[in-house]
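Researcher: I'd like a candidate sequence for this fold, 259 residues long. If you have to choose between options at a position, lean toward the conservative one.
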């Protein structure tokens, strides 16, 4: 009886050991799989992020941070209520060993990379907590007005009829150099633009050719719009763009056209 009992007990212990060992193996494999997935290799992190971060002696600092696949970045900052100056700098960034945080090499600033957002970290790489935590987040811009050919279809509430002008009035924003190219229907125009959060835009240094054409009303109107617009609205379908001044009615309306 004792021998039989010992054999049965030993067999039960062996089975229990095998079960525990299998569970531990599964746990190790699971942990290894989890550690293999991080922000760097699992998220679509490249793109442009915007937000307004707290400032010690101003209402806030607008950040527009673009991360590129080659681990380079471009950062535009603007101190609110300190003029219209926008400071632009470029550099490289590095990932931490876990692939979840990045550091802007030339600035030492750290960000935790999340799904379509960046969390600005303190100098030790920790998340900001407290009442201001939500203001240390940059959101990824999913749709953009840059790089598209925007055909002018409405000016000051009036539709632009086909053939009204010699050429098709349009604007196009070049994201690489923050430059605008445009045509008012007769003369070509160019200049610079600045985008900031939320949906703010400013055109400057606008110059153009000086040809005289019949019916310059559209061209002169478009030039006035570009000189005065301070905000924009992009439709949910991302194919219609409107420019505004303060909270007035739309100054101009455009549609995206393949060119």
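Model: Candidate sequence:
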């Amino acid at each position: 009886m004792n021998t039989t009992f010992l054999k049965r007990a030993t067999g039960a212990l062996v089975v229990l050991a095998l079960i525990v060992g299998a569970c531990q193996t599964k746990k190790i494999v699971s942990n290894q799989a989890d550690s293999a997935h991080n922000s760097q290799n699992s998220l679509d992190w490249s793109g442009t992020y915007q937000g307004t971060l707290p400032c010690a002696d101003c209402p806030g600092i607008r950040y527009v941070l673009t991360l590129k696949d080659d681990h380079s970045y471009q950062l535009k900052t603007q101190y609110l209520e300190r003029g219209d100056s926008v400071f632009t700098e470029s550099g490289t960034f590095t990932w931490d060993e876990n692939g979840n945080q990045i550091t802007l090499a030339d600035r030492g600033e750290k960000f935790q990379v999340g799904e379509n957002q960046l969390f600005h970290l303190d100098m030790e790489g920790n998340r900001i907590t407290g009442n201001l935590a939500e203001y240390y987040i940059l959101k990824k811009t999913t749709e953009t007005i840059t790089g598209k050919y925007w055909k002018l279809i409405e000016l000051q509430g009036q539709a632009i009829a086909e053939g009204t002008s010699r050429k098709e009035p349009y604007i196009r924003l070049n994201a690489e150099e923050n430059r605008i190219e445009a045509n008012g229907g007769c003369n070509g125009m160019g200049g610079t633009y600045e985008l900031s959060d939320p949906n703010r835009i400013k055109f400057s240094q606008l110059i153009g050719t000086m040809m005289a054409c019949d019916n310059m009303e559209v061209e002169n109107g478009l030039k006035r719009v570009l000189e005065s617009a301070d905000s924009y609205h992009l439709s949910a379908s991302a194919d219609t763009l409107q420019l505004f001044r303060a909270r007035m009615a739309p100054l101009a309306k455009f549609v995206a056209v393949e060119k």
